[in-house]
Specification:
With 104 residues, the protein is mostly helical. The chain has 1 helix and 2 strands, in the order αββ.
């Protein structure tokens, strides 16, 4: 074979290798960009879930505080009822537990 045919074959192989390398790089960049987009979406969703969870925690804390205040008010009412009730001896309750007040 003539030298120019070998030169064309070598140039063709080099061109083919170059196309494969450039195509591989482009495909890799597309995959990386796709992963970046997915990661951004996951971060956004995580942020939304965090905000939602924090809001539910605040509401739960408010509800627990409200329940504590209602329980304290009920205990005060029960204590007042024990003080008024002539059948309850609140003075003999040694541990301070209103529910354990002795009844005659």
């Amino acid at each position: 074979m003539d030298w120019w045919i070998w030169l064309l074959i070598i140039l063709g192989v080099l061109l083919l290798v170059g196309i494969i390398v450039v195509g591989g790089r482009n495909a890799r960049e597309r995959r990386l960009e796709s992963k970046r987009v997915e990661a951004t979406e996951l971060r956004r969703e995580a942020g939304q879930r965090t905000e939602s969870a924090e809001q539910r925690e605040r509401l739960a804390a408010e509800e627990a505080d409200r329940a504590r205040r209602e329980r304290e008010a009920a205990e005060q009412h029960a204590q007042r009822a024990d003080e008024i009730d002539p059948d309850v001896d609140v003075n003999t309750d040694a541990d301070g537990d209103d529910d354990a007040a002795l009844r005659r």
